[in-house]
Amino acid sequence: GEFVGYDGYGGSGAGTALLFTPDGKHLLAPVRQGPGGSQTPGPDGQPAKTKFDPKAGPGSDPDGRTRLVLWEVATGKRVRVLGESSEYGHSEAAFAPDGKTLAVRDGNDVAMIDFATGKQLRRFAAEWGTLAFAPDGKLWVGPACHDPATGKKLTAVAVGKAACALSADGRVLVTTEEGKNSALVWNLPPR
Length: 191
Prior knowledge:
- The protein is mostly beta strands.
- The protein has strands spanning 19-20, 26-31, 66-72, 78-86, 92-95, 101-106, 109-114, 120-125, 131-133, 139-141, 144-146, 153-156, 162-166, 172-177, 183-187.
């Protein structure tokens, strides 16, 4: 199949949030070109302009900004644009345990998006780091835990830029710091 209107965006610094929905029926991917735009060069060497088919789903805007778009896997149809556009791209996304909310990294901010409507609910500044939801719905951004409803930082286990992985039960957090050749394992208290 083919994702109609997908422009293949996702190169260096482009914002590479590619993520299946928890049910596996949809895919999130960033789009930079305008409605139906293509990165395939035309006869003049510039990207070819193709007309977007409105029956294929919502298009993006021709402003050079990046949007996160939801596609139906079975049909390739664009379902909706999620959240607000980004100048540099969405580098990561994660679903809340209930599947109703999506956290998206956009530069130094994290945007919380209502998955059903695609509307941004709130946006807050957060340290750089991998996004991971705990089973209780709290959002880990690298080494810091945030309340996704307010963006308030609740706790932190380390300082600095870190990638993280959270166990399925939310009891163990592993962090790695940029430029260091080690990983730290954190036993988190039960909530």
